[in-house]
C-alpha cells in the first residue's frame, strides 16, 4: 500500500506538491482512483488524492455555468443539475462498474482523462469543450488558472485543453468550471436491425447526416437481448421537446427505410440503453479480459472490428457513429499488438483502457507520437512539471 | 499606442539576400510571384483588420504547398528571422500585423478543398480556403461548416484555427475548436506533423486543442480537417424590443432558463439600433432602449412552436414590439440591420474600434451602464452589439483617426471596457484574439506567474521566439531569447 496524501484544500495540496517537488519524490495523482487499472501503472511510492477538495462553488443556471472542486463525485454534480433541469452535455460515462470500483469517479478525474459519452458525436459534446475554466497546481506547486467562467474566451493559450486529457501528468486539477445545457424534455431511440457492421455504420451515417438532430449513434454487434433485439443493431437517439419527437422519429424512420427493420425504444428503456452504451456495459467484458478504446473514422470501424474478431475473437461495442470502438479480448501482448496495428492501419488512435498491471507495464498504452511532437511534449512536460513528479509513467514509459 | 519591438538591424541589412533565398524556396507560378520584396507591393500587407496599426514587412512569401511552408520556416529558423503568419488579413486584433524585420507567410494561395467525406461528415481543406468557401463546397448536399464569423466571406480557415473564431451561431454549434478534427502543423524548425485527422479525441495530450486559438505563437497550420454538419430543415428569426437594458437582460435569462437554446440570440443597444436602422431600414423600433434578435431552427411546425414559446416569454416583459418572421424573407429583413451593423456604424463615424470582451450574461445591465458613463466621460460615442446567449460583447467605439488625441482616447476607452469585463468575471477577448491590440492588457486577466507559464509553453514550441512576435504576450517579462538580437 502506498502512502496516501489527502489535502483538504487547494493551498495544502499545492504545499504537498511543492514539498514533493523539492524532495523529487514522485506522486501518483488520483481522485477516487476509479480507473487505477487504466493506462500504465504509475511509478510512485506516494499517492496524492484530490478527494478532499469537494463541493460545488458556483452554480448559475441562467448562465449555464457551474464550478466545482476537482474531488467532487460526479453523481453529486449530476444530481444538482438534474434538480435544476440541466445536464453536462458531454454525458460523462460512469466506468466504476467496468473497473469494479466501489466509488464513483470525481469531476477532476473525468476531465483529466477527457472522457465523453455518446453525445460526443455532436459539435457540443466533448467534455474538454465544456471546460470553461480550471484551477490547477503545477508540478512545482504553483496554482495557475486558465479560462474563466464565461462561454467564449480566447484570451491567451488554452491550458484548459492541455490539462484536459493530460491524465494528471501536467498539473493537478483543483477546480473546474463547466458549461451546462438544458436537459431535453424527452428522448427516444430508433433501433435498426442490420445485416452486418458496415451496414450498421451506413445506417448511423444516414441518421447523423440528416437534419433531425440525432444525438446518439451506436452499434451493438450482438444486439440488446434484454430488449428483445438480437443480431447487429444500430441505435439512433433523438432528444428534444416532447412534442417534437413523434414527427422527428417518423421522418428519421422514413430515412432509414431500406437499412433494416426499425423498432422504437422509448421511455426508461431508451434512457437505460444509452447509459449502458455510455458506460460500455454493453461490451460485457469478462473480468479477466482487457478493454481497449479505439477512435477511428466511422467508416473505418467495420474493418477494424472484423480484423480484431478474426485475430482474437474480440467482443465489440461501437459508439460515436461507429468511430469509437470498444474492444474486449484476452489480456495478452499478442492481442494488444493486433489492436495497435488495427488502429494504425485505420489512421486512428487507441488506449489500453483496462488491463492487469503486467500488461499495462509491458506495452505502449497509447500510440507513440512522431519524434518532433514527442520532443515538444517533453519540453511542455518540463514547463508544467519541472521535476517530473506528477504521475510518472502514466501515459508513456 | 502599442509599442513594437525595434527591428534587428542585422536582418534588415541582409534583406536582398533573404529575398533571393526565399525566391529559391518559393518560385513564381502562374498565380504570380512567390515572394514579394519590392516596397510598393509590400504596402498591401502592411496591416490587417486593425488598420490603425501599419508596418510593411521585410518580405512576403506566398507558398502553394505544405512543403514550401516547411522550407521557408526552416530557412527562417536557421537564419534567426521572425515570421508573421497571415490568412486573409481580417484580424481585428492585429494578429497579422507585420514587423519590419519579419517575413510574412501568406497562406491565401493554399486554397484547395482536398476532400469532402459525407459519410464521415468531414472536409479536408487547405488553410487558405475561406470560411464560407467550406460551406459553399458542401451546401448542395445540405451540409455546412458551423462557425460563422462576420468576416466569413473573406476570412480563411487557417486564421480561424489560429484565433479559435466564433460567430453569431456558436450558442448552438460551438466555436472553431468544437468543429475541428485535425490539422497539418508545421513547426518553426520546419517539421510537418499531422495532428488528429478523421477521428475524435487524442489518446495523449490534446495538441489540437492547444494549437487552436494559439494566434500563430506555436507554429503554422497548412491543412485543416473540419466537421461538416447537416443543416437544419429551416430557421426563422424574431425581433423583440424592450424599454431598458435591464429588462432585455432579464429576457435573456428567462429564455435560457426555459430550456430553449436558440441558434442565435443577439442584443443591440439604443445607439446600435439607431445606427443600423438609419443604414439598413430594417424597421427596428427607434423608441426602444434594447432589441433582441432571436433565431430558432427546425421544421416549420417546430419553428412555430419555439417562436410561440419565445413570444410568450418576451410578452411577460412589457415589450415595445414583437415581430415574428412568417417567412424566410421576413427573417432576412430582421437580420438585415444586425448584419450591416459595422457598415452602419462606419457611416456615422469613419473610424471605430470594434471591441470584444466576454461577461457573465447576468452582468449585462451593469456593464452597459458603466460603458454609458465612460462614453460620457471620454466624449466618444459607443454602440453595443452583444452575442447575448454566450456573453460576448462587441462595443463599437467611434473616433476620428485624423485626430491623434481622439484615437488615444478611443484606445483608453476600449481598455477600460475590457478591464471592466475582467472585473465582473469575464475576459479580454471572446473571439477576436489578443493580437497586438490587447497584448498589454494581459496582466489584467493573468498573474505574472500565469503569463510566465504560458510564455514557457510558447518557448517549448518556439525557443527563439521567432513566431508572430510582439503579439499576445506583454513585451515586459519576455524571456531573454525573445529580446536578444539574433544572429542573422
From TrEMBL, chain A:
An annotated Gene Ontology molecular function: catalytic activity
Record bears the keyword Flavoprotein: yes
Keywords for this protein: FAD, Flavoprotein
Keyword Chaperone: no
SUPFAM superfamilies documented for this protein: FAD-binding/transporter-associated domain-like, FAD-linked oxidases, C-terminal domain
Listed InterPro entries: FAD-bd_PCMH, FAD-bd_PCMH-like_sf, FAD-bd_PCMH_sub2, FAD-linked_Oxase-like_C, Oxid_FAD_bind_N
Domain of life: Bacteria
The FAD-binding PCMH-type domain, residue ranges: 1-183
The protein's name: FAD-binding oxidoreductase
Species this protein is from: Teichococcus aestuarii
Automatic annotation (TrEMBL), chain B:
UniProt organism field: Teichococcus aestuarii
Every FAD-binding PCMH-type domain range: 53-231
Keyword Flavoprotein belongs to the record: yes
SUPFAM superfamilies xref list: FAD-binding/transporter-associated domain-like, FAD-linked oxidases, C-terminal domain
Keywords on record: FAD, Flavoprotein, Oxidoreductase
GO molecular function: FAD binding; oxidoreductase activity
UniProt cross-references to PROSITE patterns, sorted A to Z: FAD_PCMH
Cofactor(s) the protein needs: FAD
Protein name, entry field: FAD-binding oxidoreductase
